Amino acid sequence: MHTFNRNPGAAKVRRRNLSRHEQPAPFPMDRPALYFDHAATTPLRPEALDAMRPHLGGVFGNPSSAHRWGRQARAALDEARAECARAVGAEPAEIAFVRGGTEADNMAVLGRAAVAVAAGERPRAIATTIEHPAVREACDEVAARGGESVQVEVDRAGELDKDALADALARGACVLSVMWVNNEIGTVLPVERVASRARAAGVVVHSDAVQAVGKVPVDFGRAGLDLASMTAHKIGGPRGVGLLYRRRGVELAPLLFGGGQERRLRPGTEDVAGAVGLAKALTLAVAEQAAEAERLAAERDRLQAAIVDALPGTRVFGEEGERAPHLLNLGFPELDAATLVMAFDLAGVAVSGGSACASGSTTTSPVLRALYG
Length: 373
Description:
By secondary structure, the chain is α/β, with parallel strands linked by helices. The chain contains ten helices and eleven strands.
């Protein structure tokens, strides 16, 4: 939830400002509570936990070991990879297990920049103005290392500025990153159309699909993407594991060194239990997507209508274009977002004041600033 310009006619709300170090009394967990922050993280699905259990104890081998214990772990890892590939429209060889969405985004942007540098070129990274910080700051890092970061504006309906995109692509780039669903306001971007234009210009295209998987139909191969990121904990899987899709034939340099795991993209012993949990949660999320989208959209619209009716002056962000069903972003006059989040928490309701990756920030969301000024 976010604030916007003050409305002199809005009702005053009596509140006490909490210092940043002051902690509220713990909410009794046996009291009824509402968790409205699934865009930040979701509870682990029982099915995912059940799938993981054998790999948290008995199946303990290193997947790189040649003995039977290692082969048992490798078989589970390979099956998890195949399951994930089927769910997102990819081949198993195109799936790399990683630490999560942030790592996958960094691997896509900085890995492509490293390919350009190795070829003797100055890297240029293109991204929209409403990307997740993992993409936005990775592009900033490209510039800090002597490359160039180019931002393409997006309107409130999720459409990219056509002239700016055409100009950016015409000048060449090591990567174009365009998110599938915005993580704050839920706007769905035209990934397939943008990917088509990028590939026609010979530019590798990446999409942060963290908030898209399980919420809107997703098929990385059909969308024409070269690279894509997603994470398990947004869809009922375990925290700390995600995947990077890399289309066959796309060059990508690793960010880490010291092993040949994950086709040398992500060295280190794989988290077999995490991969298995991700595969189970992803398979279920994709299978349930259509029904869940219908249910979530109805719940979101009902909640939105009730709040807007009860609190005149409430502003709804993200309504101008296609919107993913699970996100509702509201602004309230005269209310500070951080104070409001704390008040909800004291009442046993979990909400967020913006991107979970910007937790603690008191500045206006870059996404809202880019779209609404």
